[in-house]
Amino acid sequence: MRIARFSIDGNVAFGAVEDAGGGDPAGLLLDIIKGVPYSGAQLSGTKVRLSEVRLLPPVLPSKVVAVGRNYAEHAAELGNEVPEAAMTFFKPSTSVIGSGDPIVYPNFSDDVHYEAELAVVIGTLCREVPRERVKDVVYGYTCANDVTARDLQKSEKQWARAKGFDTSCPLGPWVETELDPSDLTVQCTVNGLQRQLGRTSEMIRTVEDLVVHVSEAMTLVPGDVILTGTPAGVGPLSVGDEVAVTIEGIGTLTNKVIKRG
């Protein structure tokens, strides 16, 4: 099931995405869900057209835990070694935006990059999750763009500003709750031209590895997100660019880059 979060007439709701148009995006409907869907989606039967609503970030995470250098070719393209243990960092909740929202180019950087990633969405309160229970705590998966100020990442020892600035964590367009994440195509285009193409089977550490690793250190709550790393092919964005992240079985997350006003 695909679960979207959206606003309509000033109200925010969750809805199950239904295809009523034979694959035509214009025919997508949202069956409004009663309450918050983590404990089981109860459909209301009241439906609205996707074209009539504004998509919001599919979740509001208390934290986004991101993983660096989880694809060997990406580590190599930036001149880095593959880390012995998973390299993790945070992106704050204020960095999160949805599909269709603008990425605001920060005025303190001259080299902002896209990074297409599979995002894991947590569905239940959990800590020290054993490998065999990972599927029980994962709510689903969505597309992510780990937007990075590459010049700051290189010049500052900590990555808080480089990867945590406002609008640097697009998520969406919705959460897919029924998906095997082990071998999915991950693609990024800029202005319609392909820049990244990889598969989640190329990840050094799997979704199970990462949930176990992160939950050893911290409690995860419903809506928290783990970013799983990006394949090779990262590169710069400019004001006016439209960047799209597409993941097999989920959909496409699209954002335009604008200048800070």
From TrEMBL:
Gene Ontology terms for molecular function: acetylpyruvate hydrolase activity; isomerase activity; metal ion binding
PANTHER family found in the cross-reference section: ACYLPYRUVASE, ACYLPYRUVASE FAHD1, MITOCHONDRIAL
Protein known as: Fumarylacetoacetate hydrolase family protein
InterPro entries hit by this protein: Fumarylacetoacetase-like_C, Fumarylacetoacetase_C_sf, Rv2993c-like_N
Keyword field: Hydrolase, Metal-binding
Residue ranges annotated for the Rv2993c-like N-terminal domain, each copy included: 1-58
Organism of derivation: Streptomyces montanisoli
Keyword Metal-binding listed: yes
